[in-house]
Specification:
The chain is of the alpha/beta class. About 45% of the residues lie in helices and about 15% in strands. It is globular and about 45 Å long. The protein binds ligand NPW and adenosine-5'-diphosphate (ADP). Belongs to the NnrD/CARKD family.
């Protein structure tokens, strides 16, 4: 397995060009934060804005919109149903990506929403939370397969529980079943079956691509901190990865860089505040310090 370190990923960082405008810096759109989980939508949107995307637009509930207008007024806001009508197309000069699922519970309405977003998105996707529930169904799986056939990539960001659900939805493969206690092999199984980069989160985070030849190609990040074991840190990670994807990084590079910056933000927050007291909001606040530390 390849160990991810700050030093190893520093060169992946997107360049901020002198002649940049907000669109050349990448549009990150997010379909996040239903009325029961507005906080997850706010956290993911704030993280995407912090992680360098030039234009951030949240398609969200009224509840999350009200909060975002106060804590992140630079974010452009729209309702869920506007995604299919307004979502950005991309070209080489104007990259874009969409994050979907943070703070979307597994209701029928949300599952329909996720599938319609996957069908409408002509951009790379980050699928988290409720979007992972949606693709573990036959129709959700088919929507993702069509997205891939249309030439667009996807990154899946499951925690252990979500990974178990993604694997349970697959046909049983006796050859690989024995290996699935190993998280690197779980990540690889998910990446290959769903044809997407898999970021399997936990105390150690494993990143696998569909074309990895075996577990030896899976990357592992093990330098994080249990300070990150707090509700909402996964939503921050999804926003970070989405923003990097929106700046034109490859799915694998965006995933690896996002995981290391997020982990380092947790470590720096823990150093400053003590691991016990670190909040998810502190992790957001320490992202700039983590970026400076990595690109120094
Ligand atoms: N502020 C907000 O608005 C927030 C909103 N949020 C939103 O909530 C939605 C639901 O997400 P969710 O993760 O809370 O619930 P769910 O998908 O049911 O999974 C939990 C089950 O999985 C299992 N499990 C196994 N391994 C695990 C692991 N390593 N890490 C965690 N769990 C693990 C675990 O079982 P255990 O092993 O603990 O018995 C448990 O039974 C989602 O849309 C998300 O974005 C949150 O982000 C929080 C902040
Ligand atoms: N003990 C730990 N050590 C290091 N990182 C952790 C630990 N526990 C959780 N994390 C990290 O915190 C984040 C939690 O994400 P997730 O489980 O999706 O939470 P949520 O859905 O509440 O946002 C992941 O990036 C994970 O790798």
């Amino acid at each position: 397995m390849r160990k991810l370190t700050k030093k190893a990923i520093a060169q992946l960082f997107p360049q901020l060009k002198q002649d940049a405008n907000k669109y050349t810096r990448g549009t990150c759109e997010l379909v996040v934060g239903d009325r029961n989980f507005p906080g997850a939508g706010v956290l993911a949107t704030m993280a995407a804005t912090r992680m360098g995307s030039g234009y951030v637009k949240a398609y969200t509930s009224d509840e999350a919109a009200a909060a975002l207008r106060i804590v992140q007024p630079s974010a452009v806001i729209a309702s869920f149903k506007q995604y299919g009508v307004e979502c950005h197309a991309q070209d080489d000069l104007h990259p874009s990506a969409t994050v979907v699922g943070c703070g979307l519970a597994g209701t029928e309405g949300n599952m329909t929403l996720v599938k319609s977003v996957i069908a409408a998105a002509a951009v790379p996707l980050v699928l988290d939370g409720g979007a992972l529930t949606a693709i573990a169904t036959e129709s959700g799986f088919a929507a993702l397969a069509d997205h891939r056939l249309n030439g667009f990539s996807a990154i899946l960001t499951p925690h252990g529980g979500e990974a178990a659900r993604l694997i349970a939805a697959l046909p049983v493969d006796a050859e690989v079943a024995d290996d699935l206690h190993d998280p690197a092999r779980q990540a690889l199984r998910i990446a290959r079956a769903y044809d997407a980069v898999c970021v399997l989160k936990g105390p150690q985070t494993y990143i696998a691509s569909p074309d990895d030849a075996g577990a030896k190609d899976v990357a592992v990040y093990a330098d994080g901190t249990p300070a990150l074991a707090k509700a909402g840190t996964g939503d921050v990670l999804a926003g970070c990865i989405g923003a990097l994807l929106a700046q034109g990084l490859s799915p694998r590079d965006a995933a690896e860089l996002g995981v290391v910056i997020h982990g380092e933000a947790g470590v720096l927050a823990a150093e400053k505040l003590g691991a016990f007291c670190v909040t998810t909001e502190d992790v957001l606040r320490f992202i700039p310090k983590a970026v400076k530390e990595i690109v120094k």
